[in-house]
Design brief:
Layout (H helix, E strand, L loop, with lengths): L1 H28 L20 E6 L4 E2 L2 E4 L4 E6 L9 E2 L16 E5 L8 E5 L4 H4 L2 E6 L11
Parallel strand pairs: 1-4, 3-8
Antiparallel strand pairs: 1-2, 4-6, 5-7, 7-8
Length: 149
Amino acid sequence: MKRDRARRPRNATLWAAAATFATLIAGACNGGGRNPVAPPPPPPPPAANVVEVEVRDSLFEPKSVTIRPGDTVRWTFRGSVPGHSVRAEDGSFNSGFVFDRDGAVYERTFGAELDGQTFEYRCVSHFVCCAMQGSVRVGDSAPPPQPGY
């Protein structure tokens, strides 16, 4: 009889441990009866950039840029001969003759609706003599510019 009494507490302890383990496993499988933790939100899109293009006396540097939708292109005059402009071939933007002194700036933001497009532009005053032209490709899927741009 002593032996049976000794086994009963041990068997009861094993059964209690098994029941506790089963409860823990069941809780883990269904979230423990609590609301599951929501996954973290996706990271925000990268901030828009400002891409610099220098307007020199007879060229744009760099001549061609590829930007992300939402980025801004900033053309800054770094020359000694005023009278330059930035005019899109399709007429979508035109700086006019704002480049009248060193450091003069013209900016254009290319929004998401322009993704996949290429904008070819020129300096009105110096296109014929110097082939002063450039291009902006919006997004990696934008086609390459025509030769010379």
